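Hello,

Our lab assistant flagged a job as stuck in the queue for most of the afternoon. It eventually completed. Since we weren't sure the result was trustworthy after the delay, we are filing this so someone can double-check. Below is the sequence as submitted and the structure that was eventually returned. Let us know if re-running is recommended.
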Amino acid sequence: MNRLNFNDPYRRRDTLHSLCATLCACVLSGGLIYLIYLARVLRIAVTTRETDSRGACLLVFGKRLASGLPDLDFQARIHAAHRLLTADPHSRAILLGGGQPGSTEADVAFHQLMNLNPRLANRVTLEAQSENTLENLRNARELMDSTGSRLAVLISNRYHLARCAQFAHQLGLEFELHPAEQHLPRNAHTALAVLREAFCLCWLDLGTRWARLIGHTRMVKRVT
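-- returned structure --
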């Protein structure tokens, strides 16, 4: 899930500023910089193994709903969380994702999880205010602080893991990655998602580096 809020004029200005800096870097490098990030997304997507950490806090990323229902990618994330919660009775999960009141991504994920095993209800917390991956992790960090959890297991689709890891690193989280799928699917949907994620990661990382280089405190605070 990744939505931009352009109601804040400073956010719009900072977003366009970082985007221009990223595009300039990609053009001046002849596209080489983008290919580097594409390789990173693919490497993490292909090589990440399922975690076996015990007693961790599972962070299940939301995804935009299709007519109020989770798509196959989102369902894979929910099923992965179910497997980990079932395997480790000491783990807890935070379901992430906002949306319309009463039908947020977190609400939908919770109902899907309860259909799989209603006994897990007391080990699940909903975070239904966030609108993008960064807000997912920011809000989850506060919830984790209140529960005393330190290690976060980030659950998402393989193509999304590199960006999740980058945000978690910038927010100072102690984390491990857990893929929703056993292997990276080989289809057009996944290929397009990998290409998109590579650009998002490139934009995130280069935009952050540029903001730090020029001492733009407001831009840095938006992503840390």
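-- support follow-up --
The delay was a queue issue, not a problem with the job. The result is valid. Residues 188-213 form the longest helix (26 residues). Residues 26 and 69 are 37 Å apart (CA to CA).
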